[in-house]
């Protein structure tokens, strides 16, 4: 996948989300697994951040805790200036609905609804009216105008994921979380979706956090956060696939023991 950079990324500024000293454990006693171990990280507004690391390093757990889909064992999570870790279930559900967008590996579209109905579904559920001009911009950017009346089964995988991207963008959420968004796509469709995610950050000011295994996908981001064993071990600005691949290779090396 090539790394296209239409505009330089904006300077670092405010944070769209942050976690402060978050620990997440599954199980107790001998069976305890520390999926996140005292993690502190900020997600800058208006930028595209990739989260990488070996399998089991805690990427999905970090994203789920940040998005309020999972609770933390200790520490605090903020989206904008709201502390998620203090909200009851009802408020958390409302915050997720109003301020967060999601894109998953499995597109999670409703099969009986058309592309357009899928795109506006979260707004409809929230009882909000779509901003038509914004909706038109999103639909044209993802190139779905000729397919709006089609149902998911009549669309290619790439088109279905573009519907999911448009759905995430439709409400202009403060932050979008994408979990392996290109995991089910061939490389050409994957590149289209990544290019679109990148332009929604560069041209529309969206904030995106994406978990990925693919150094080529991470290269579309403005920065990469590397996790290992539930801890953040490195960050990289202006990544290229080569630089990310090189860094990932380091995770496979046995630890050097000093004598
Ligand atoms: N529900 C659960 N119960 C017990 N352990 C869990 C649970 N979910 C995750 N874990 C453990 O927490 C650790 C981190 O898992 P996580 O799914 O966040 O890693 P990941 O980096 O996303 O992995 P992958 O790249 O393979 O998807 C792993 O050791 C995993 O086995």
UniProtKB/TrEMBL annotation:
Residue ranges occupied by any ABC transporter domain in the UniProt entry: 17-254
Q: Which PROSITE patterns match?
A: ABC_TRANSPORTER_2
User: One matching Pfam family, short form?
Assistant: ABC_tran
Keywords attached to this entry: ATP-binding, Nucleotide-binding, Transport
Family annotation (InterPro entries): AAA+_ATPase (IPR003593), ABC_transporter-like_ATP-bd (IPR003439), ABC_transpr_LolD-like (IPR015854), MacB-like_ATP-bd (IPR017911), P-loop_NTPase (IPR027417)
The UniProt entry, under SUPFAM superfamilies, shows:
P-loop containing nucleoside triphosphate hydrolases
Q: Which GO terms describe its molecular function?
A: ATP binding
Q: What is this protein called?
A: ABC transporter ATP-binding protein
Q: Which organism is it from?
A: Actinocorallia aurantiaca
């Amino acid at each position: 996948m090539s790394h296209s950079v239409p505009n330089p990324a904006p300077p670092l500024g405010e944070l769209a989300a942050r976690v402060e000293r978050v620990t997440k454990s599954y199980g107790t006693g001998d069976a305890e697994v520390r999926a996140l171990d005292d993690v502190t990280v900020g997600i800058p507004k208006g930028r595209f951040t990739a989260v990488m690391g070996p399998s089991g390093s805690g990427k999905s757990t970090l994203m789920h805790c940040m998005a309020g889909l999972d609770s933390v064992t200790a520490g605090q999570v903020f989206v904008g200036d709201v502390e998620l870790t203090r909200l009851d279930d009802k408020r958390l559900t409302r915050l997720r609905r109003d301020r967060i967008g999601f894109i998953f590996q499995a597109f999670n579209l409703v099969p009986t609804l058309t592309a357009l109905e899928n795109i506006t579904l979260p707004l409809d559920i929230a009882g909000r009216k779509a901003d038509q001009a914004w909706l038109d911009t999103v639909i044209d950017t993802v190139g779905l105008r000729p397919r709006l009346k089609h149902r998911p089964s009549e669309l290619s995988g790439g088109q279905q994921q573009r519907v999911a991207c448009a759905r995430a963008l439709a409400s202009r959420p403060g932050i979008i979380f994408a979990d392996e968004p290109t995991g089910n796509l061939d490389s050409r469709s994957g590149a289209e979706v990544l290019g679109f995610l990148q332009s929604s950050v560069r041209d529309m000011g969206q904030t995106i956090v994406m978990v990925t295994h693919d150094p080529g996908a991470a290269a579309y981001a403005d920065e990469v956060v590397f996790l290992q064993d539930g801890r953040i071990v490195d960050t990289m600005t202006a990544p290229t696939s080569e630089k990310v691949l090189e860094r990932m290779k380091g995770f496979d090396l046995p630890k050097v023991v000093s004598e």
